[in-house]
Design brief:
267 residues, alpha/beta, Rossmann fold, nine-stranded mixed β-sheet, two-stranded antiparallel ribbon, 7 helices, 11 strands, globular, plasmid, Alpha/beta fold hydrolase, AB_hydrolase_fold, hydrolase activity, Esterase-like
């Protein structure tokens, strides 16, 4: 068991339909947080969307900067979709962003997500079980995390969606002053999204990603699309007006919810 201790919020004192959890992780050797939304949803084996934030962020930004709760409820009101639990973890709190990588010296931020966060969902929410389906999405650095982790662990996730994604580690330099050598992993291919996509191409979940045409990462997303096409990996790529900003993500995360709902309804 990698979770050494869980501290769970009391619903009597917590905003409606939310839950906050602090996890003491042996992978990180410290405490980090997860915020949940839609915890009052009824049912068993409910699917979970893990939402990864970008640089500078934390577990609260998807709701309190991005209004993910309002975006989710809008989709639910418009379409007859299944109930989802939204899980919004911290990235682990390293530097300006951990990139959700298994760092060589500083902690395993990858296993924090694919083990601790998933285990915390199952341990603290009665509606989430070993039979629940998990989906992964993210924005910017979180988009990179969603693409890489979804590709590396295709057995864990039923769908991948990324918004304004960093598609290669070098693009972290747009947002952080930290030398990229600080993100060194044990293997040189570890941080390469395309390496994992090609390695597991026969068992990948469905993939979608989008980017704004005014985004600093737009050209990298176009290059990533070409790599996917050349590798004959199925995907959906959409481009819209907009930049690297919360207004864009609030709007287009609704497409992620619809995308995952379509997959869930087909299973």
């Amino acid at each position: 068991m990698t979770i050494q201790r869980l501290e769970v919020s009391n619903p009597e004192f917590t905003p409606n339909n939310t839950q906050m959890v602090t996890v003491h992780s042996s992978h990180l050797k410290r405490r980090h947080d997860i915020n949940f939304y839609n915890v009052n949803a009824s049912g068993q084996n409910l699917p979970v969307i893990i939402l990864l934030h970008g640089v500078y962020g934390n577990s609260w930004v998807w709701m309190n900067l991005g209004g993910i709760d309002k975006a989710y409820e809008k989709v639910k009101a418009e379409l007859n979709i299944p109930e989802f639990i939204l899980a919004m973890p911290s990235d682990g709190g390293r530097l300006d962003g951990s990139a959700y990588l298994p760092s060589l010296n500083a902690g395993n931020y990858e296993k924090w997500i694919v083990e601790d966060v998933i285990d915390a969902c199952k341990q603290t929410l009665d509606s989430v079980t070993h039979n629940s389906h998990f989906y992964i999405s993210g924005l910017s650095m979180g988009g990179y995390g969603a693409l890489r982790l979804g590709a590396k662990y295709p057995n864990l996730f039923n769908g991948i969606s990324a918004h304004s994604a960093i598609t290669k580690l070098a693009d972290m330099a747009h947002f952080v002053e930290t030398p990229l050598s600080e993100y060194q992993c044990e293997h040189s291919s570890e941080a390469d999204v395309m390496y994992w996509l090609k390695k597991n191409h026969h068992q990948l979940p469905k993939i979608r990603f989008d980017c704004g045409q005014d985004d600093v990462l737009y050209e990298s997303n176009l290059q990533f699309e070409k790599q996917l096409k050349d590798a004959q990996i199925p995907y959906l790529f959409e481009q819209f007006s907009g930049g690297h900003e919360w207004a864009y993500w609030h709007l287009h995360v609704q497409k992620t919810v619809k995308f995952f709902a379509d997959i869930e309804q087909s299973l």
